[in-house]
Amino acid sequence: MKRHPRLLSLFVFITLIIFIIVPFVPLLLSSLSFGWRWPDVLPESWSFRTWEYVLNDGRTWQAVGISLWIALIVTAVNILLAIPAANALVRYPVRGRWLFEAIIFAPIIIPPFISVMGIHLTFLRLGLTETVVGVVLAHIAPTLPYMFRAVMISYQTLSVDWEDQARMLGARAVPRFFHVVLPHLLPGILAGASLSVLISLSQYLITFIIGAGQVVTLPILLFPFVSGGDPGIASAYSLLYAAIAIAALVGMDAALKRYYQLNKASQGQAKGVKP
Amino acid sequence: MKKYPIASLGILALALSACSSGDAGNATDADSLLTDDWGVIQDAAQGQEVNMYMWGGNDNINTYLDEWVAPRMKEQHGIELTRVPMNDAQDIINQLLDEKIAGKSDGSMDIIWINGENFKAAKDNDLLWGDFTGQLPNFNDYIDSDAPEVSQDFGEPVEGLEAPWGKAQFVFVHDESKHETPPKSMAELADWVQEHPGQFTYPAPPDFTGSAFVRQVLYETTGGHEQYQQPAAELEDLEERLEPMWQYLNSIEPYLWREGETYPESLAKQDQLFASGEIGMTMSYDPALAASEVLKGRFPESTRTYLLDGGTLANTHFLSIPFNASDKAGALVAINELMSPEAQTAKLSPENWGDLTALELEKLSPEQQQAMNEVDLGKATLSIEELEQNRLPELSSDYIDIIEKGWTEHVAKE
């Protein structure tokens, strides 16, 4: 019995390595190899050709910036849309609630590029193609369901009693939201935001159709190399992409931790000041 | 090029309301460019931002445009040339089609890189600007506009709608250290695959290169390319004429890679098989691709290319200007510059790209000819003369459709 948890953690550790670390090894080797041919297990010589191309190209960094920028705006818009929507659908007896939920979750089931191909002409007429705004709007369809679901679950575990109590103590709507509701929702929002950022970062087809070549995100640069047959450069771009996705997740997590720390500190202070 | 719009929700609403129907004012201005003097065009091009939409899957080509061409455009003509990477030229046409339907008059695409079926689709749908090549000094000086490879694009009359940028030719690629005497005709290939079972295959059509291989078979097994110059619909006995080709392809099938049960889905996959030594031959519609793969270390040093004794298919790739390009003067000047002997010589070098020149060698000055001949094409690439002497014309796209569909029917399913 005593050894069991250790065995379990070893098992988890090995699984993590096999499924998360190992897939990156061939990518790294392929991006650094010069003349890597069967049956060699390791490349016979090394070259920085792919990384020189990827890292020296000014467009790479521009694309990284635009990808993150779009993911950030998409996530912010998603938060603003998902909180009121979840609030309404969880807490109020909405008639035809299944219909609203079905509409919000539809993009998970229907591939979003189908709707985007249809919306392309409309966006063209409105002048929204080739703009970041248009791409942001297009990215909301596939990302909102995940944000909405996460926030909805957070709301389901938040009893209205907490807000009622705050109200009885004299808190108005805005402080009530920020001091009672938001702290409870925060882990859910973070989970939704992580998914929203990741999904937005990974969009190729939607970005391509609406951005029409003028909004160049990382996948737009990466894709021609994957299908065009330069595995080295495709590997280098993929690793860069993974690094940025991981950095975004870690950054968001760190921001949440920092928020909790600050909160604790200020609460502590408040306690100290009180008579 | 609004890359960083002000981010806030309010702007979304503003953007939605601020869009009115596009202004039609500059459309008429632009059309006078088709008759203006070159000097006027050059003045109008100053300071324009030209977007060049092109396939973006080759780092050499990308670097040639970003680091060789773009700085010169800026220096010499004050033009800001931006390369826009696309996954497939077909996407360019689809996008233009939607823009045409939506009536977008201020398009972002100023130059597009197309040929073959993409050109035909663009021409049939009126997506191209007009007969502009006669305006380009370098076109008039260095191109023989009556030559079939310039006046026709896969059998489709060009009519000045696109300017030739480079040439490509079908070559076979083999590893000299493994197979010293590769098969130089389809008849020899049939024997070769029997002696070396599993060492040969070709990408499944409609892959561009695989489809070209099948046409190569067509020319040799059905008695030459001359009979296919007329439209496919006018050849009533086409089915029977194609029959020997299907027979040939089925006869070699059992000796192909994986006994012909499956074919590589793309040239990229086939090249991967060749790079890893699993097959002994590959092919390419780019005669310099093998040399550049050797430079990158993907293909072995002993890689060589060769032609068939009866010649191989050749085509020309072109630059064109869409109907709604916003910076047409800049596009004209940029295309002219891309066709200059200096730019074409740089493009020929395998370090930059290795693409064959579109210019007529005899029309160049002796110094310019020398500069071109001095370019070291690399051991894997054949000389320009050898390639030029063995060129066969392409088929028109109606044949290509029939052959690609027929291949699935006659070869893949049997």
Automatic annotation (TrEMBL), chain A:
Membrane topology: Multi-pass membrane protein
Family membership: Belongs to the binding-protein-dependent transport system permease family.
Domain of life, per lineage: Bacteria
Protein's recorded name: Putative spermidine/putrescine transport system permease protein
Main localisation: membrane
Entry's Gene Ontology cellular component terms: plasma membrane
Residue span(s) of domain ABC transmembrane type-1: 64-252
Transmembrane segment boundaries: 7-29, 66-90, 102-123, 177-198, 205-226, 238-256
InterPro entries membership: MetI-like, MetI-like_sf
PANTHER family xref list: INNER MEMBRANE ABC TRANSPORTER PERMEASE PROTEIN YDCV
Cell compartment(s), UniProt: Cell inner membrane; Cell membrane
Keyword field contains Glycoprotein: no
Keyword Cell division: no
Record keywords, A-Z: Cell inner membrane, Cell membrane, Membrane, Transmembrane, Transmembrane helix, Transport
Annotated Pfam families: BPD_transp_1
GO biological process, one term: transmembrane transport
UniProtKB/TrEMBL annotation, chain B:
Source taxon at top rank: Bacteria
Signal sequence range: 1-24
Keyword Signal: yes
Cited InterPro entries: SBP, YnjB
This protein's UniProt keywords: Signal
NCBIfam families referenced in this protein's UniProt entry, alphabetically: PRK11622.1 (NF008633)
PANTHER family recorded: PROTEIN YNJB
Protein name as catalogued: Putative spermidine/putrescine transport system substrate-binding protein
Organism: Planococcus citreus
Lineage of the species this protein comes from: Bacteria, Bacillati, Bacillota, Bacilli, Bacillales
